[in-house]
Amino acid sequence: MVAQSSGLASIIPAGSYYTYLACSSTGELFLVLKLASHYVLPNDVTKSEDVVVLRLQYSEDQPCWDVVRDLGNMSLLVGKSNSISISTEDLRGMRGNCIYLAELLSTTSSEGMLICREARMFDMKKGRWECLYSSKNFLPNARKIPVFLQPPFWFTPSLL
């Protein structure tokens, strides 16, 4: 299946984006685009244009991507390993209409590697990021990321 995306160029601001696909329990498919900006502090990225959420509108004739401005009581949990859509109605501590992002940023120099692990939340109504967790580790003489410092990931336990 190929979804039409020709009209998206006028909606999505120019730039390079990280892309994440998230599926809901009802089968909806979301595409999250996060502006790929290199920043030092976790709260530097605060513009609502930094995140675009699209939902696949399936039709036999012409599937297409529609812009999502409000997720209602749903949240998207996105990251490198797994991205999902969940209902926040019965989950204390989770806010609806938000995107939760887990990521790992690293820079290498001749002295070693700086690794930043972050979990952030993007409130779609406010158009702002909030830092939930941030840690920085400097590894002297390192050239690749050790296993114990891999990016955080989301999982959903099942009782079935």
From TrEMBL:
Top-rank lineage group of the source organism: Eukaryota
Pfam family name, one: Beta-prop_KIB1-4
Domain KIB1-4 beta-propeller: 16-109
InterPro entries reported in the protein's UniProt record: KIB1-4_b-propeller
Name of the protein in question: KIB1-4 beta-propeller domain-containing protein
Organism (species): Musa troglodytarum (fe'i banana)
Lineage: Eukaryota, Viridiplantae, Streptophyta, Embryophyta, Tracheophyta
